[in-house]
Design a protein that fits this description.
CATH class of the largest domain in chain A: Mainly Alpha
Helix content of chain A: over 70%
Oligomer: homodimer
Order of helices and strands of chain A: HHEEHHHHHHHHHH
CATH superfamily of the largest domain in chain A: Antibiotic binding domain of TipA-like multidrug resistance regulators
Number of strands of chain A: 2
Strand order of the largest sheet of chain A: 1-2
CATH architecture of the largest domain in chain A: Orthogonal Bundle
Amino acid sequence: MAYTVGQVARAAGVTVRTLHHYDEIGLLSPGGRTPAGYRRYDDADLERLQLIRYYRELGFPLDEIAAILDDPAADPAAHLRRQHELLTGRIGKLREMVAAIELAMEARKMNIQLTPEERFQVFGDFEPEDHAEEAEQRWGDTEAYRQSAERTARYSKEDWLRNKAENEDWGRRMVALMTSGVAADSAEAMALAEEHRQLITRWFYDCPYELHVCLADMYVADERFTAYFEAIHPGMAAYLAEAIHANAISRA
Amino acid sequence: MAYTVGQVARAAGVTVRTLHHYDEIGLLSPGGRTPAGYRRYDDADLERLQLIRYYRELGFPLDEIAAILDDPAADPAAHLRRQHELLTGRIGKLREMVAAIELAMEARKMNIQLTPEERFQVFGDFEPEDHAEEAEQRWGDTEAYRQSAERTARYSKEDWLRNKAENEDWGRRMVALMTSGVAADSAEAMALAEEHRQLITRWFYDCPYELHVCLADMYVADERFTAYFEAIHPGMAAYLAEAIHANAISRA
DNA sequence: GCTCCCGCCTCCCGCGACGTGAGGGTCAAG
DNA sequence: CTTGACCCTCACGTCGCGGGAGGCGGGAGC
């Protein structure tokens, strides 16, 4: 089976230019050429391209991929095993980044100040020095000021008060429901969870169900957020989290 | 408080050249200069640099960071949400890739030939949104990989024959159990499912219960794998899959 | 035969986010 | 007054391609 560049490109989801590039640097040279000079790729080339694409997606530089693929000590099964490990690891790291973003969004919403360490939590290689630590303390202070300044710039006082009123009203009804002994996965609790989601959407940012569930998990996992709700009513963080989960499931 | 480039660079964990670059493109211009032309960064510059670093680690390009920081009308939350979507999208894609790898592993194990379409199916809706990341540095640690590669490289013909023999022995006992009418979620079937998992672990790759269940689903969903087991004994694919599920649940 | 158009070829400039010098001025310590 | 660490401004190199120019090959229709 022989394929032209265009066919290979369409099948593999890369551009023709990319295949030309791989040929140029010797990473993937087609099995042969037609008399007119057209590149002719065979099945072995496709298999190699698949491995290249996976390693590329994992962030390996091309020259290293060439070294890995041309290493005679590594059989194809070993490549697959390795890629499986790398992929799961990579997913874990991306999840950390997503969690960091969710933390940032939620911290902005509640005006909770992140410690510099938390902000750099997504950095793998950050080592605090003495001088750096001093600077971080200052940065932390000014950051809180910047956030609050920005918020007052974006919302008028009326807006802010209205938001606060809506929020407190929601909180009161939530507490009332809890103390009346209604289950967290009841229709009423789910309705309030939905209302919570829409409050976030209206005042802060668009919050689909998936994100809402992530937030719910954070409310019970991160003690600062837990404290925020426990201050309203003991057990509220867990109750709200369960209601959010139930609501998300029922709407899915 | 005024700092030189070097001091700022050390404190923030970036290179001097990076600060020069940020100055060149106007992303972070120092508050002033000394008479000799030295850059003098003040506290506000440090704060801005910290935010730049933060957004960069979250994967934002420099021009977008400039937009976020300089446009008073820009909503940081919207950018965070966009980045959140981007990252979750990438996670989903990586999960598909993991599934494709598992398919390729099993296909190789059972000597099934993949078509080019299947090979690249996971890249179907690929869009040029290449995020070159240093994942390789963190996850590409070649230590474990080389060990496993060496181990499989040392598999001799005898080893392979022994593997085959063990596999066939397991198959015979599985068939015997099936034909005797024992239920797929019985203790005996679960024991054989567990043995299957350990065979994979010993001979091919580490196979936790989660992965084992994925494989089980593939055995019934993909007709080529189904055929592999049906050739051993009719109904075996479904029987094995059910046993694997039961085993995974009981061990969890 | 001739045209038409698509796909292929090579050559080459451009990008983003810096790295890496070259060649030279500045500053504090010894 | 020297030394060595630090700073400056060019300016070109890197990686993994994107995109276009200018030209050739191949099959369909006239």
